[in-house]
Amino acid sequence: MQSCEIKVVRRGDLAAISHLTVMPTVCLVAFQNPAASSEIDLLAKASLAVGTESFALYGPHADALEDDIDFVLEQGEPSWLNISTTSHQGESPQDVAQFVLHAAHPGDEPFRCLLVLDDQLAAAEALMYELV
């Protein structure tokens, strides 16, 4: 089993992403409500700046959030087009955690997850529990 490190940033404190010292491999975003374009832009660019290699989006608006993250990636650096995004709208916290742990970053390399949580999401605690 690969080693695992999880950093949690709350939705209201997205600027904290830029202060991470360990580069995440996967950014799992779990939001209850839709995000404003400025929030999406900050989330995506700050996550990429610290090394995020893929985004997994969870919650009732994950499909739209994935489209919005994709838009930021398409407008950015050419290398950003290699960043993958997946939507997990309507899936259980268990299924999302299993995907992130085993499919989003396969192999023996250390797994580092940036978990961006919306405290209004009822499944937020369950998702954190499944990841640890």
Plain-language structure description:
There is one protein chain. This protein has a 5-stranded parallel β-sheet, with helices on both faces. The protein contains 4 helices and 5 strands. It has helices at 37-49, 62-75, 93-102, 124-131; strands at residues 4-10, 26-30, 54-58, 84-87, 111-117. The mean pLDDT is 89. With 132 residues, it is α/β, with parallel strands linked by helices. Strand 3 (54-58), helix 2 and strand 4 (84-87) form a beta-alpha-beta unit. The protein has a single domain, classed as Protein-Tyrosine Phosphatase, Chain A (Alpha-Beta Complex), CATH 3.90.190.
Helix-strand layout with pairing:
Blueprint: E1 4-10, E2 26-30, H1 37-49, E3 54-58, H2 62-75, E4 84-87, H3 93-102, E5 111-117, H4 124-131
Parallel strand pairs: 1-5, 2-3, 2-5, 3-4
Helix pairs in contact: 1-2, 3-4
Characteristic terms for this protein:
single chain, 132 residues, alpha/beta, Protein-Tyrosine Phosphatase, Chain A, five-stranded parallel β-sheet
